[in-house]
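Notes from the 1:1 (GR / supervisor)

We went over the backlog. Supervisor wanted to see one worked example end to end before approving the batch request, so GR pasted a single chain during the call. The sequence is below; no edits were made to it. Supervisor asked that the structure be written out right there so they could see what the output format looks like.
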Amino acid sequence: MNSLTELELSVVVPTYREAASLPLLLPRLLNTVRQLGVPSEVLIMDDQSNDGSLQFVDAYGAEEVKFVVRKDKRGLSPAVIDGFRMARGKYLVCLDADLSHPPETIPAMLEKLAGGADFVIGSRYVAGGSTEADWGRFRQLNSFVATLFARPFTSVKDPMSGFIALTREQFSRATDLNPVGYKIGLELLVKCRCKQVAEVPIHFANRAAGESKLSLKEQLRYIKHLRRLFVFRYPNWSYILQFGFVGAVGTGVNLGVLTAMIALGASSTLAVAGGIAVSLYTNFLLNRRFTFGYSRYQAFWPQFAGFVAASAVGSVVNYFTTLWIHQSVPQIPIQMAAVIGIGVGMVFNYLSSRYMVFRRPKH
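Structure output shown during the call:
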């Protein structure tokens, strides 16, 4: 393991309209980096702010700083990933530009990496960590709920933190990086398969300048991000749960169409058929788009035909399973036999859908 004085460091700072923050950040960040006395670089990954940030950095004239104007796939998380891929250091650090993350904590984070950790978090919630006194009940509740939702992936105290450090070797182990929103730390923690995670206490300050980018839209993106992480970490369970949820939605659609058609004067035979047909189609669309989303760019009608065939066979499996249980074990109520039959039919439909209808592309 290299000692701290032998490290090569890359610090990535994602920005968007942070012209007011950079004059406050750079002196503190560069002072910290220079005191380390190691070959270092600071990459400012900017999403075409066009707010004077580029001109300020050029005028500042720090040889360690490189300003990168990004034109593709804008957003904080993609900016960090692009920065880490561009970085030349053995040790990678990311922090926000608004000084909510104190750059003076970087040496302590590097000490943890040098000591064997493969991922380090600047944490608000470990002993010694804190937030501003006027942070507010709503922000505290929002952070608590978001952290709770991250529990299936990690037990660290502050998985929402964007102040992170990891080794280049660990970053190179990441697969299928596709974050949405601001929670890049959680994305890398999961996708880099980090085991030795350390948390260093920080004081999380309010934004020093500029405006916060947090919004309801970003919170909804976090839910989308969690779904992606769940599929990555627990693929089998995620497909099963989503398939079951779609089935429940399909049941509601079936009953709704049936009821509406009867109310409009259709015969019960036609209404039952209509409910089945519409729910079958909606189930196919939802499974194609969400449960097995990787297959949605494949040919539509062959998939639909396969789904109808699989569902028809699954219904036959359900029917004969129910009758066999009811006849073999007559003391079991037929309703219970039907529930078991539905379960067996659903398992058949899931397996046939996943491995025959919605097949994952080879590449």
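Supervisor's comment: Residues 236-357 form one domain.
Batch request approved.
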